[in-house]
Amino acid sequence: MVNEIAVGLDIGTTKVCAIVAAPDENNPGKLNILGIGRSPSDGLTRGVVTNIEKTVRSIQMAVAEAEAQSGVKISAVTVGIAGDHIQSFQSRGVVAISRPENEISQEDVDRLIEDTKRVALPSDRKIIHVIPQQFIVDGQDGIYDPVGMSGVRMEAVVHIITGLVTAAQNIYKCVQRANLHVNDMVLEPLASSYAVLDDEEKEVGVALLDIGGGTTDLAVFEERTIRHTAVIGIAGKKVTDDIRKGLGILTDQAEKIKQEHGYAFMPAIVNNEPIILPGIGGRPPIEIDKRLLSQVIQPRMEEILEIASMEIKRSGYSKHLSAGVVLTGGGSLIKGTADLAREVLGMPVKIGIPSGFSAGLVREIENPIYATGVGLVMHELKHRDRSTITASMTSEKGKGSVKSIFNRMKTWFDEL
Questions:
Q1: What is the rounded (10 degree) CA torsion for 386, 391, 392, 393?
Q2: Among candidates 25, 54, 24, 22, which has minimal Cα distance to 39?
Q3: Nearest CA to 331 among 288, 361, 302?
Q4: Which of 140, 139, 191 is nearest to 161 (CA)?
Q5: Cα(172)–Cα(167) distance, rounded to whole angstroms?
Q6: Which CATH architecture has domain 87-164?
Q7: What is the pTM of this model?
Q8: Could you give phi then psi for residue 353, rounded to 5 degrees?
Q9: Cα dihedral sign, 292-211-121-318
Q10: Distance CA 246, CA 240 (A)
Q11: Which whole-number Å values give the CA distances from 135 to 69, 144, 155, 412, in the listed order?
């Protein structure tokens, strides 16, 4: 079982989570959650490392807790990457098939994916993921696995996700300084999608909105593949800052009342009993009205959702999302967030809870704050065979070929 264990490390702006899991031997396709580690994080800003030492300490604390709970010595992790430096765009490529009988091989697909990556990028930016959306053989589109087909000309439409080299290097450096090996680096909304979306939702069209502490991550899916990604540099920490400034209280107090008493949608307030906070420095207790608190929270949450709405429209798939929007991440836990999202986005909305496990710490892990960590574990187990380089498809509907992120990261560090 030790060889099958995977660890997801979600390094966020407000928290670091380490999830230890393994396949459940009694339930094929399900996970056994062995350990969960969580520590505060204050070494990142909007998903980007700004203090190496603080981030290393947060990683060490989360990993130590996960090790103690699971009884597993953690030496390697799959880590998430986010931040408003992330950019994405569409690309196309084309190759000729010249082998006998014009049968398409995996090597042809490899060449084609490499061709799609021949795009001009600034020197400080590198490709993180190349996600095939469809292949076109002799003009026939809608093909997801062209290997074995006959044809003379093959094209591919792909979604390319890029990030700043330095941002990725600093994450890598922090993990290494915590005495851990990086198995893989995965875009966080892509990871979260493994944990909270099912194939049916991805088939008919769905947008995943992960409201974290430092960033809000968006991923749009249709026909079981990713169509658009975006990272919004406003999230839960901004809401906490608004409460702190607006009500003149401490950051810890602001975070606590946001989680326990906050409403993102004022009409959702059921009980308007006042919130009593201890006074600072021996001063009298502070009494706060829930509606006043909501008046501080709602505008910022509306801003996040309005930017997300613009990104969904920019994707060109706003009319194709039959499954609507799935909210996840810690920000989705603010009461009334789903109600506000329905009003702002004008489509069905639900809260996405991580799923896909049947043993271990099941009850503890069923929380949106763990969506990325669980998804990183799922990604690692799905792509564990490093000898077979497969595309970052979001389902088994089709496979292509790309250079693994693991090898790309080694190249980045060779450039230092």
A1: -130
A2: 54
A3: 302
A4: 191
A5: 9
A6: 2-Layer Sandwich (3.30)
A7: 0.88
A8: -105, 130
A9: negative
A10: 10
A11: 45, 6, 6, 29
Instruction: Report the 10 Å Cβ neighbour count for 217.
Output: 30
Spatial neighbors of 225 by CB under 8 A, at least 6 apart, are: 131, 132, 133, 134, 159, 202, 393, 394, 395, 397, 398
Q: 212-261 pLDDT, tens per residue? A: 999 999 999 999 899 999 999 999 999 999 999 999 999 999 999 999 99
Angle at 92 (CA atoms; ends 87, 96), nearest 5 degrees: 150
> Span 362-376, mean pLDDT?
95
Largest CA-CA distance found in the chain, in angstroms, rounded: 86
Residue 82, helix vs strand vs coil: coil
Q: Is 32 helix (H, G, I), strand (E, B) or coil?
A: strand
**CA-CA distance, 52 to 170, in Å (whole number)?**
7
Structure token digits, residue 226 = 């990713």
pLDDT digits (tens, 9 = 90+) for 38-82: 999 989 999 999 999 999 999 999 999 999 999 999 999 999 999
Look up tokens 């580690």; give the residue: 37
Question: Quick check: 332 and 211 in contact, CB under 8 A?
Answer: yes
Measured CA to CA, the distance from residue 115 to residue 311 in angstroms comes to 28
Q: How far apart are the C-alpha atoms of 254 and 310, rounded to whole Å?
A: 29
Among all chains, which residue has been given the structure tokens 């043993």? 359
3-state secondary structure 172-203: HHHHHHCCCEEEEEEEHHHHHHHHHCCHHHHH
Render pLDDT for 301-335 as a digit per residue (tens, 0 to 9).
999 999 999 999 999 999 999 999 999 999 999 99
23 close to 30: Cβ distance less than 8 angstroms: yes
Domains of the chain, by residue range, sit at: 87-164
Residue count of the chain: 416
| Residues 37/17, Cβ–Cβ less than 8 Å | yes
